[in-house]
Amino acid sequence: MNQKVVFEKLAVKERTQYLELFLLADESEAMVDRYLNKGEAYLIQIEKKTIGVILFTFSDPQTVEIKNIAIEPRYQEQGIGKQTLALAESHYAAKGFNTMVVGTANSSISAIVFYQKAGFRINSIKKDFFLHYPEPIVEDGIPAIDMLIFEKKLKV
User: Fold this and answer.
1) Of 56, 30, 31, 57, nearest in space to 44 by CA
2) Matching CATH number, 5-153, of 3.40.50.2000, 3.90.550.10, 3.40.630.30, 3.40.50.150
3) From 145's CA, which of 1, 2, 28, 37 has a CA 20 to 30 Å away?
């Protein structure tokens, strides 16, 4: 993929228009509603076409969390996610953040591989996190039970 990924800031009042995209990464609308209006959100675009969304929250002045990252399925496996992470890392490193974290389900094998290839390391586990979702989540026959928290140190 040699097309350049860019971010376009998404105002809080516009976020619900892209709920379908946010739900690609988090199947529970009730859970997405908990964070949709928090933090900073961006459209992920290539040649001015929106192909995904990313939302960040801030637990402390040094840490940025990727709360949701979703790319339309037809644009996956093309290096767009890798470019998106690189753009996010440089953007927040330049703003003075030194750590980026992201959580994913124990059952999200492709996401686990993706984050590790991008230089993230497992930092902690939130046991039973997905047992609080309204509906059970099963991926590739694996029930989502625990959330794996990945962390990456940012370089300025």
Assistant:
1) 56
2) 3.40.630.30
3) 37
